Amino acid sequence: MCGTHGSRAPQASSAGQSWGRPWAAASPEEYSFEYGSPRYLLLCGLGGMLSCGLTHLAIVPLDLVKCRMQVDPDKYKGIFSGFGVTVREEGLRGLARGWAPTFIGYSLQGFFKFGLYEVFKIHYKKLLGEEKAYTWRTTLYLAASASAEFSADVALAPMEAVKVRVQTQPDYARTLREAVPKMYAEEGLWAFYKGVAPLWMRQIPYTTMKFACFERTVEALYKYVVPKPQCECTKAEQLGVTFVAGYIAGIFCAIVSHPADSVVSVLNKEKGSTALEVLRRLGPLGVWKGLFARIIMIGTLTALQWFIYDSVKVYLNLPRPPIAEEPASLKKHK
């Protein structure tokens, strides 16, 4: 079993594995900032900004086709036909439509999502105490991620509205600079925030699944699959576990959040509609249009986000907390 010191990551299993060797096991004495310090939390936010901004930017073409399948299923009948229609009508450049609001919006969202998750996880753990925090750790992950996502979506909403409008209405506006003043002139600030409630409906289930499923999957992989304790794994091996757990979590994320994602796509395309009106019009089958594309997109996206986030921690010498272990006080009662 790996030893821990408070909230800090476990020490390396041998003196030869020092932090000076980039892919050796972690050595907490040489971390750049203490776990839970303001600078640590700020850099976690930076890691989240990079992980979300870059990954969403990379999948703009797939996201564009997915959105068009949701709002115009008669024209965009599937992933491959959707790509074909888009390229024929707009050329290859058409697949990059909406890249600017995507990158800005999801960078802001990532900063608050990952940064505040660390804040709330530490805060809720202190409120519960060590024993209850371990016993109710899944609930703790759910509560911390939901709290973080609530704020993150307020930051995302304006750019998400612009992105969907640009991607699903080719004749409306081609760029961020063209769309923003036009939307403001038509609907005022409401144009940018009318989708925040559906965003919460989509993103909070998605994020709670993303963090809770990831945390418990990592725990299960180290317990049942990886043949040695986490503290004896090199950082490269730990990043491999991160990627696998992230992909598994992403599949579940896509499923639980897809109906709300369909509503957001249609709502941001249309003027004057409400979430309930869109939901009634789509019906129980319509809200699942584009699910396969979303599973591919979100599975890959979530795995890469966790990988980039963890890689930033490695690069910046930030503590990477060990998996949850049962406190000694609880073991005595057994």
Number of helices: 13
Following the backbone from N to C, one meets helices and strands in this order, namely HHHHHHHHHHHHH
The secondary structure category is: mainly alpha
Low-confidence stretches: 3-26
Would you count the extended β strands for me? 0
The coarse overall form would be elongated
Helix content: over 70%
Oligomer classification: single chain
Strand proportion, as a percent range, falls in under 5%
Can you give the mean pLDDT?
85
- Please tell me how large the radius of gyration is: 21 Å
Q: Main beta sheet: strand number and arrangement? A: none
How widely separated are the two ends? 18 Å
Provide keyphrases for this structure.
13 helices, single chain, disordered N terminus, mainly alpha, 334 residues
How is this fold's topology laid out?
Blueprint: H1 38-58, H2 60-71, H3 79-90, H4 99-128, H5 130-135, H6 137-168, H7 176-187, H8 190-193, H9 196-225, H10 235-269, H11 275-286, H12 291-315, H13 328-332
Structure, explained:
The chain is mainly alpha-helical. Helices cover about 70% and strands about 0% of the residues. The protein has 13 helices and no strands. Helix 1 (about 40-60) packs antiparallel against helix 4 (about 100-130), helix 2 (about 60-70) crosses helix 3 (about 80-90) and helix 10 (about 235-270) crosses helix 12 (about 290-315). About 45% of the residues are buried.
